[in-house]
Write a structure and sequence with these properties.
With about 140 residues, the chain is an alpha+beta fold. It is about 65% helix and about 10% strand. The longest helix has about 35 residues. GO terms for molecular function: glutathione disulfide oxidoreductase activity. Belongs to the glutaredoxin family. CPYC subfamily.
């Protein structure tokens, strides 16, 4: 009978170690997901796909002002990320370089689609592409 009790106790101990190991793995995995969600890449993707209009801008840039004015004239309110006012602005510009091949500002997205910079935006507004992207035809 003692051997049976010892056997059960040993199995409970092994099961407890197993459960503890699983809990540790889950905590490690969860912390990696939290870190990934704070990454510049995740931030950029979230901005692009969570907003009708997203502009990655710098507060002093005349081309960025021109792009914002274009949307203002269309009575549209873009979500603007001022890269020069963020500590991770240079990291976000590196993500944009990987994503669209440019680090320059502004970089404009409408309904998840990359429009380009200020000149590209004006061309899209003139030829009706912007209105199509906005769904305002």
């Amino acid at each position: 009978m003692k051997t049976m009790t010892g056997y059960r106790s040993n199995n409970r101990c092994k099961f407890g170690v197993f459960v503890f190991g699983i809990m540790i793995l889950l905590m490690i995995h969860a912390s990696k997901r939290v870190a990934a969600s704070k990454s510049p890449s995740a931030f950029v993707q979230n901005v692009i796909y969570s907003n009708k209009i997203a502009i990655f801008s710098k507060s002093y840039c005349p081309y960025c002002h021109r792009a914002k004015r274009t949307f203002s004239e269309l009575q549209e309110q873009p979500y603007v990320v001022e890269l020069d006012l963020r500590e991770d602005g240079y990291k976000i510009q590196n993500v944009l370089l990987d994503l669209v091949g440019r680090r320059t500002v502004p970089q404009i997205f409408v309904n998840g689609k990359h429009v380009g910079g200020a000149d590209d935006l004006e061309v899209a507004a003139r030829n009706g592409v912007l209105q199509d992207l906005l769904g305002t035809n």
